[in-house]
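hey all, quick one before standup. I had two proteins in the batch that finished overnight and I want to keep them in one place so we stop losing track of which output belongs to which input. First protein below, input sequence then structure tokens straight from the run.
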Amino acid sequence: MSGTPAFQNGNAVLVVTRGPGKMHLISYASNAKPAIVPHFGSMSTPAGTTERDETRFLITHSYTFEQCAFYWEGAGEAAYGVGNSLVRQAVGRSWQAAINVGWGATTATTTNVSGQLASGVQRDNLINCYIVPALT
């Protein structure tokens, strides 16, 4: 991701997963006045996803929050990249080892964001994450 500002000029985070599972995402560090509590939740792969199938998740940015972090819950592998960067990295497997990306960041970090959950609100299937359909 180095050198590519996240969430600017169309540079979103793309996660490619293999097999069935759930993408978990938290948006936190509100820039609103008064501050808004973190929003977190998950999105499952489509029904019928097999161990060989790939799913592409597009992680986008909420203008209300400065930070987001995500992890993959599934038996298969998951890798992420940002924008036009060719660099792909493994996705964390828990809130304690989530991938954190801030607005305009040029690097992603592995971060323990579990402390953000206590003050947050759960929004399964209502997070800034979208499944990109395969164009075959």
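OK second protein, same deal, sequence then tokens:
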Amino acid sequence: MLDCLIIGAGPCGLSAAIEMQDRGLAVEVIEKGNIVEAIYQYPTHQTFFSSSEKLEIGGVPFINKELKPKRQDALVYYREVVKRKEITIRPFETVERISKRADGEGFEVVSSRMEETVTRQARALVLATGYYGLPNKMDVPGEELPHVSHYFKEGHPFFGQDVVVIGGKNSSVDAAIELEKAGAHVTLLYRGEAYSPSIKPWVLPNFEALVRAEKVKMVFNATIDSITPTHVHYKEQGEATSIKADFVFAMTGYTPDVGLFADAGIMIDGETGIPDFNEETMESNVPGIYIAGVVAAGYDANKIFIENGRFHGELIATSLADRLVRETTR
């Protein structure tokens, strides 16, 4: 039986694994994609808010030629961390079920890879499943059409196309800038009355310059009514209108997927989405199940980042190591 099984191989899950290994605990990490899958899903040319040193885990230096690393820099760094620390990763496995063992000693986790079912036993679990599990749906007709996406990768495929970006925060503005640079005809529809204060201060001036030069069309107070194969229909200041759209990016944010939490008996605040846990140990209301990373913040993705979530692992490892010592000396 493992001492701990971590679900989620993002930076916070990897950090927890390293902290446990440093204390001599037997640990493995299950990931439905591969390591740092959420970072891999970032736009190709994404730049981090944080400096490289604030993304470091396991005492491995993140040396980068620029102050703020890009997506590719982070992917290289975290791959190197996993190799150096010899973390056991179980990639491309989807956790299907978590349950307490019949004898009450730990947990049973059932996962699937391809068509194979795998069952593992562990004395404790860490849920580090991240924030980008589920896109916030607009619940409008046409949202599921094939030319509509909640994820943006890069601008090149949309050269010469009419592209509508829905949303008004960082992901929307970043997508609009890159799309325009790649030669797309871009319109950004935002339900707010003015630019969001959360937009990165070094990005907003560039975007505003594009709008002033009429290279990007910015529409405030826009409420989406429906999407068809050729148009986006919306209301601007209450007046119905539409715009041609070959492709649509609905950058409306994301919600953590907490299905496993509920299945395991972890209580979740209905208003904030925050799971019930002890901030000193990160242990949930279910003894032996811990929470790590941004998922601990519920619906507020601006509360926990890699730079502070990476320290959850130390709290968890200390708590778990102490607990296992107590259990073996009883």
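Flagging for whoever picks this up: The chain has a mean pLDDT of 94. The first helix runs from residue 11 to 22.
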